[in-house]
Specification:
51% of the residues lie in helices and 7% in strands. With 440 residues, the protein is an alpha/beta fold.
């Protein structure tokens, strides 16, 4: 079979895979003019990094473009299929490339789904990254702070990729219709794109898969019609076309989280059932419940975090399908719990002040004084040990002197936080912590 015929039979997403940054759609915050990755490519000095984002937004494609642009050997591993031996074998090939006079750029090692590597597999990468034998580019759909070991995170920046938005999906669709040889030979009538974009869900690969389905399910000689009714009907007949068993169902997980946040246990259980039936990773669901318990329930019911964490642990112990039962129990408990995001807002408020004011010095009385010199310099002087006072409390200032007192935590309207706020009022002698000044 001729090469052109083979390419026509390949999936549209593969036929349309960009080869250069000029063809790459989306992620302007990373690859647009003056952006961080664009600057690295332009200078040819690419550091190791991890791309974090949902499926179908161009992680693998971007890694290949970078390697091609800087003229570097490109190696790829899938964390699903590769072990420590595979990693070591590739690193040895990269070592030989570095020593070769014919290699211009430092080898790029792309690891897809790097979050699936265990600790020993990730450890095996550290030396090569540290010594500069490889430029590591990892791709993950999971939060790297949960799944990637800290030593590796310290050696690789994390860049977040975003789902493609309607203008970007429109550009991708128009490029497919105007540049793909197979589609150019067909009559295409684009009438509506609402359903097309909704089913794509920000996933460029999914959008192209749907266009591929519309093409192949429309007889030769007939016009390919793209409208809401046609797209919906074709996808209902071919559920696999929109990746029913994909790694993440962002639309469903969004509805799931919002149902729990909105205290609707029935809707939350429904969306849980949709994910279970669709083959979603159970640990992904459990992980999102832990996050939700901290972010949306928080101090209104601190036991929620403990239960969510226990559910995650139980799920790992008993496996599937029995794991659906503790998941359901946790979902109902979280949905019916009182809600508070006061802790979430407090840390965000504090981070905003830290970014605004920088590294303020720790007051001398709060510093540790392990040496005589530090004691002579006043470290720890006038610090009041709370346990030496009635009720284990004494007024003193704990903030940097230049900042005074700032209120980061605003108690939410629930019994638990009302008790906490009352205790703070009793201790500090004020109703509103923001009005305290610098008590000492």
């Amino acid at each position: 079979m001729a090469k052109f015929a083979i390419m026509k039979e390949a999936p549209l997403a593969e036929r349309l895979r960009p080869q250069t940054l000029s063809d790459y759609i989306g992620q302007e915050h990373l690859v647009g003019d003056g952006s961080i990755i664009r600057r690295m490519i332009d200078t040819g000095n690419v550091s190791s990094f991890i791309l974090w984002g949902p499926p179908g937004v161009g992680k693998t494609t971007l890694a290949r473009i970078i390697a091609n642009t800087i003229d570097a050997p490109f190696y790829t591993l899938s964390a699903v299929h590769s072990g420590v031996k595979d990693v070591r074998d590739v690193i040895e090939k990269c070592r030989r490339d570095v020593q070769s006079m014919f290699t211009r750029g430092r080898p790029v090692l792309f690891i897809d789904e790097i979050h699936r590597f265990n600790k020993s597999q990730q450890d095996s990468l550290l030396g090569a990254v540290e010594s500069g034998i490889i430029t590591l580019i990892g791709a993950t759909t999971e939060n790297p702070s949960f799944e990637v070991i800290r030593p590796l995170l310290s050696r690789a920046q994390v860049y977040t990729l975003k789902p493609l938005e309607a203008p970007e999906l429109t550009r991708l669709m128009e490029r497919a219709l105007s540049s793909d040889e197979r589609l150019k030979s067909r009559q295409v009538d684009v009438r509506q794109t609402t359903a097309l974009f909704r089913f794509a869900g920000g996933d460029g690969r999914k959008l192209l898969n749907i266009l591929d389905l519309l093409d192949r399910s429309t007889p030769e000689g007939e016009t390919i019609v793209i409208d809401d009714a046609t797209v919906t009907n074709r996808l209902q007949e071919n559920p696999a076309a929109y990746d029913r068993n994909g790694e993440m169902h962002y639309d469903i997980i969004s509805a799931f989280i919002k149902s729990i946040r909105g205290s609707d246990p029935d809707a939350a259980i429904y969306w849980l059932a949709r994910m279970v039936d669709g083959g979603e990773d159970p640990e992904f669901i459990a992980r999102r419940l832990v996050i939700l318990a901290c972010e949306d329930i928080g101090l209104a019911n601190p036991n929620a975090m403990l239960l969510a964490n226990a559910t995650f642990d139980i799920l790992r112990k008993i496996g599937w399908p029995e794991g659906r039962i503790p998941l359901a129990e946790c979902v109902i408990y979280l949905a019916t719990s009182p809600k508070s995001n006061s802790a979430y807002m407090a840390i965000n408020n504090a981070l905003a002040l830290v970014k605004e004011t920088g590294n303020q010095p720790v007051p001398l009385h709060l510093r540790n004084a392990p040496t005589s010199l530090m004691k002579e310099m006043g470290y720890g002087h006038d610090y009041k040990y709370a346990h030496d006072y009635k009720d284990n409390f004494v007024k003193q200032s704990f903030m940097p002197e230049t900042l005074g007192h700032h209120q980061f935590w605003t108690p939410a309207d629930n019994p638990q936080e009302a008790r906490m706020a009352q205790l703070q009022s009793t201790r500090w002698g004020r109703q509103d912590p923001e009005q305290s000044g610098d008590s000492n």
